TrEMBL record:
Record carries keyword Transmembrane: yes
Protein name: Transmembrane protein
Organism: Bacteroides acidifaciens
Origin superkingdom: Bacteria
Keywords: Membrane, Transmembrane, Transmembrane helix
Membrane spanning residue stretches: 12-32, 38-59
Length: 257
């Protein structure tokens, strides 16, 4: 029970108690001073009121239950013209909007093939630029450690990786007198894969298969977890600038060991 209900109940109780006390006082006064017994007059009235109130409550409850089970439409089919007009306007607006949607911009649709072709052309041009940058980078960074033939095979393996032809990888071995070591190879794989958007697992697989002799003791899982470790190496990590694919060859050359 809420506070509001409690307050209202207290007020009603107070009024009823006050009425009873007032009635008792008046009845006592009239009987003591004038020998008038008002009970004979008020009793039928009170009983009649109580009976009427109880009967009204019972009838109300009965009608409520009956109307709940048997609903009746008291509008007799009449509906406000304002509501009808509003519905008509809404339906009309929806129809106009649907008609507008069904008529797309023909010029945009007609140019769809051209736009798609331009997008593909730009992507292809960028891919060519990326591969050219990678070829230049790989040649410069691995020239001290690989023969010309080995560099050519390495570039072919990179192209296979970019195309998803992992089964075409060929093994390479660096120069015996100046071999590539694991940290440099890991960094090389990370730098190239970052420009191509290749996963770490694919980068690790590429470098493992390409240099099986140099990485004979390294598992693919180990390579995957350590492609970008912070250690000194022959080929340092080269993080591309945001939105760019080019390598920092001058900086790398000064830091490589």
């Amino acid at each position: 029970m809420t506070n509001r209900t409690q307050i209202r109940t207290q007020k009603i109780s107070f009024v009823l108690a006050l009425l009873v006390i007032t009635y008792t006082a008046i009845d006592t006064y009239l009987f003591a001073c004038h020998e008038i017994n008002i009970m004979k007059i008020t009793t039928p009235v009170i009983l009649g009121l109580v009976t009427t109130i109880v009967l009204c409550g019972l009838l109300q409850r009965s009608f409520y239950k009956w109307l709940t089970k048997n609903p009746i439409d008291f509008s007799f089919g009449w509906q406000s013209s304002l509501v009808l007009d509003s519905d008509f306007e809404i339906k009309d607006d929806c129809a106009n909007e649907a008609q507008t949607i069904e008529q797309p911009n023909d010029s945009v649709i007609d140019n769809y093939d051209t736009l798609l072709e331009n997008i593909k052309k730009k992507e292809a041009e960028r891919q060519v630029e990326v591969m050219n940058a990678i070829r230049e980078y790989v040649t410069i960074k691995t020239a001290p450690y690989l023969s010309k033939e080995a560099i050519s095979i390495l570039i072919s393996n990179i192209e296979y990786m970019a195309c998803g032809r992992y089964d075409l990888y060929k093994p390479i071995r660096s120069n015996i007198d100046k071999p590539l070591k694991s940290p440099g190879l890991r960094h090389l794989a990370w730098n190239i894969g970052e420009r191509l958007g290749i996963s770490l697992l694919q980068r690790a697989t590429f470098i493992k298969v390409s240099f099986p002799h140099e990485l004979t003791n390294a598992t693919i899982e180990y390579l995957k977890l350590n492609l970008r470790d912070n250690v000194s190496s022959q080929i340092p990590i080269d993080v591309p600038d945001k939105g760019d694919y080019r390598f920092h060859l001058e900086t790398d050359n000064s830091n490589s060991k």
